[in-house]
């Protein structure tokens, strides 16, 4: 009897320990899953053994997409649905490519409310029709007006606070619920230049946001200040100058001065350490992308991970990943808060994946690299007036996530005749490996300007100590050409307006204020022949990184079409406690579930449109089901099928 009683006791204990996992309520309150990013779900009902049985529970269509527009540039001929939903307080909330906000019941998909900010849908926006999501704030007094707020950042540069219960603007915030983000942005010639595509980040009562700026269009672009606003009133709390003003620390790294310097903005998602009260900024390239003769020097804080105090905007530390960027290797991926185990202790860190294919792992308190980083000599520029920085930081661990050099041996040999054309083309170009500067004859830039790692970022499994990062393995040919001396304008150039103005700009570059420029027609082109990339596939992979060891775990091709395994694309992964990684992002319209230990594909689902937003997982009630939700709407730049689907999967 004692043995039986003991056995039942052990069984009861096992069930008790297992019960919290099965009954765990887990929302998705940030687009990145948590304040520090990482796109991780602690839920484990959906696991290796049953993931293949997932069924569609509900589908919602928002209607905000178009394909086949009249515009002559390919990337603005349609929409790109990149919004990752959030789930909080009984609402699943997301934004559409037109900045419309939709709130659904997360278990049934029933529409609760919608809000339309009324952007001009016929307007040409510099950074495409994109909105990557919304942010959420919960006040201490549940009876106060707009006690729970959804913050929307718009393409036409507004910050809007909505009542999370009703979807109506909060009247006490800004002017009738809106803050005009164009105020204080100078020089700004046309509001078209300044957009917001990523959600704000909320830390306490501070709503922190960056901007998306039209770079390279003219010599002097708007500056990429990062600002914080009070969540209740909309009052400006602080401004941080990512391009330091004269006399501020870092201004000495701009040898031509900073008065006419632009961009170095934060267009990706800002992450936060709530306990430390810090925000981490992934700062982009200074303007223009491919010629820096008017911005000589290292150019802080461009291409830097910046740690700021969320309450004051004071700089705590910075780490620059590229000096004097000439390759558009801006930090597109959100910094991810991770932990690294070393010599029996756990170190809080920040992992920053880059377009160049590197992964920098930095101490969260100081910004110091946890693995050695060398300053290595890189090729000099041969463009008159340009002075490329002599060295660039190269982490010794982990190894590069993507390939970084193309030689004859890397050319795709499936078609011998085309390979010979590629070989002949390669010999014409400047090709000295990573950080080969742009040139008049054309230079190989590999990884290309979309990465390596791009805004898709990564997913972090804190149990296994692994980071999963989707990467691209394509190359660009970048060339610059001189413009007449008379093109140098005192006002820094004008953005083009209308069809005629756009054609004049594209064909001549006149009126931009540039000395040297990269033509939008043939200045940045894929290293390809007959429309097919010259380097062999895979052109897109999912890579697992062992953060404790500073080593790569596995890498697998992601996406498949036309007999090619491994397609380029954009789309954040999702990691779960049950040992799964969900990933899509390419034009093949398939969502795949990978084994986090091996990279093996365990299940796959066909989708009605391309998936370029992050999959999420949640359970909103202890007795409820674990859901897996995807926002499949395609991406005109990737070439995937466009649509407007939000789809929820769950176990039968």
Structural write-up:
Helix content is 7%, strand content 30%. The chain is mainly beta and 652 residues long. The protein has a domain at 133-334: Lipocalin (Beta Barrel), CATH 2.40.128. It is globular. The two termini are 39 Å apart.
Main pleated-sheet profile: 5 strands, mixed
Q: What oligomeric state best describes the polypeptide chains here?
A: single chain
pLDDT below 50 for ≥5 consecutive residues: which ranges?
A: 1-22
Report the CATH architecture of the domain at 133-334.
Beta Barrel
Give the strand tally. Answer: 45
Structural class: mainly beta
Shape: globular
Question: CATH topology of the domain at 133-334, what is it called?
Answer: Lipocalin
Please, what is the average pLDDT?
Answer: 93
Strand content: 25-35%
Q: What is the element layout, followed by pairings?
A:
Layout: H1 2-22, E1 40-41, E2 55-61, E3 86-88, E4 91-95, E5 101-104, E6 111-115, E7 135-138, E8 148-153, E9 158-163, E10 178-180, E11 194-195, E12 201-203, E13 206-209, E14 212-213, E15 226-230, E16 236-240, E17 271-273, E18 278-282, E19 304-309, E20 315-320, E21 336-342, E22 345-353, E23 359-363, E24 373-377, E25 391-395, H2 416-428, E26 443-445, E27 459-461, E28 466-472, E29 476-478, E30 481-482, H3 498-508, E31 516-517, E32 524-526, E33 528-529, E34 532-533, E35 540-546, E36 551-557, E37 560-561, E38 564-565, E39 574-576, E40 580-583, E41 590-595, E42 601-606, E43 616-618, E44 627-632, E45 645-650
Parallel strand pairs: 1-39
Antiparallel strand pairs: 2-45, 3-4, 4-5, 5-6, 7-8, 8-9, 9-10, 11-14, 12-13, 13-15, 15-16, 17-18, 18-19, 19-20, 21-22, 22-23, 24-25, 26-29, 27-28, 28-35, 29-32, 30-31, 33-34, 35-36, 37-38, 39-40, 40-41, 41-42, 43-44, 44-45
